[in-house]
C-alpha cells in the first residue's frame, strides 16, 4: 500500500469530516458561491483547523472564486488543497532525518504531557531509524512512573536496541548524563530520550526538563540536536496551550502529532503548525510499530481533501 493510501485509510474520520462533507454539499448540483464558502468555513472549523487558519483559507478561496469562478467540484477541491498547502509548506523546513547525517550521536529529547504518546513514539522512531541502518540508544528518562521504564524496555526489545534505565524515582538528569556517556563510548548514531510528562507540580516538571537540557549540553555542547514535543491530536486547541507551556522551559524544534487515526479533527495539525510556526515532523496514525509517518503537507492535505 502506498503511503498516501495508508494515510487516507488511517485519517478516514478527518477525511470524511472534510472531503466527505464538502463533497456532500456539492453533490446536490448546487452552484458554487458564497453559501458554499460559508459551509466550507463551518466544516473546516469543526475539523479543528482553528478560526484564524480557517479564515485565511476562506479569504484566499473567496478571492480565487471571483477570478477563477470554479464551476466543478474538482476545481474547488484543488483550490482548497492548494490554499491549505500554501499555509503549511513554508513552515516545514529541513526534516529531522536529513539533519542526522554525519552527526553522532544525534540527540533527540522527547517531551510532552503524560499520555500524549511519547514512549510509543520513541518505540516507533527506534524501529524507523534502525531500519535506516542506524545504531540507537534509548534513555528511559521517565523515572516518575513505575511502568514507564518497563514500557520503554519492551519497545527497545522489539527493535533490539540498547536502553539505559534505572529504578523508579532515580534522578532523570543523572540517567541522561550516563546514557550520553554510554552513547559516545558505544558510538550510537541516535539517542532518543524519554521524559516524564507529569510530576507533582507543573513547575517541578519544567524545572526537571531544564535540568535535563543542561546536562545534555554538558555532555555534548551542541545537543540536544532536536527537542520534539509530542501532542495528542485528539485534544485540539488544548495542544496549543501545552506547546506554549513547554516552549517556556525548553526550545521546541519540532512536533509529533499522535492519535490522528482516532479523530475527525485531524485538521488540528494545520492549525498547530500555523499557530506555533514549528514544523510537524511526524504523525502517529495507530498504536503499532509502523504507525508513524513523516509529515509532509502535500500528502497530508491530499489525504484529507481529495
Ligand atoms: N491510536 C493511537 N494510539 C496511540 C498513538 N500513539 C500513542 N498511542 C497510545 O496512547 C497511549 C499513551 O501512550 P504513551 O506512549 O504511553 O504516552 P506517554 O505517557 O506520553 O509516554 C498508549 O495507549 C498508546 O498506545 C497513535 O498514534 N494512535
Ligand atoms: Mg511514557
What does this molecule look like?
It is a single chain. With 306 residues, the protein is of the alpha/beta class. It has helices at residues 3-10, 12-27, 34-46, 51-68, 73-92, 96-99, 118-131, 146-158, 172-186, 202-219, 237-249, 268-276, 297-305, and strands at 106-111, 136-141, 162-164, 190-195, 226-232, 254-258, 280-284, 292-294. The chain is built from 13 helices and eight strands. Helix 1 packs across helix 13, helix 2 runs antiparallel to helix 3 (34-46) and helix 5 (73-92) runs antiparallel to helix 13. The two termini are 17 Å apart. The model has no long low-confidence stretch (mean pLDDT 93). Residues 118-119, 142, 148, 194 line the site of magnesium ion.
Radius of gyration: 21 Å
Query: Strand portion, in percent?
Result: 5-15%
Q: Count of DSSP E strands?
A: 8
Proportion in helices: 55-70%
Overall geometry comes to elongated
Give the mean pLDDT: 93
Q: Multimeric state of these chains?
A: single chain
Most strands sheet: 8 strands, mixed
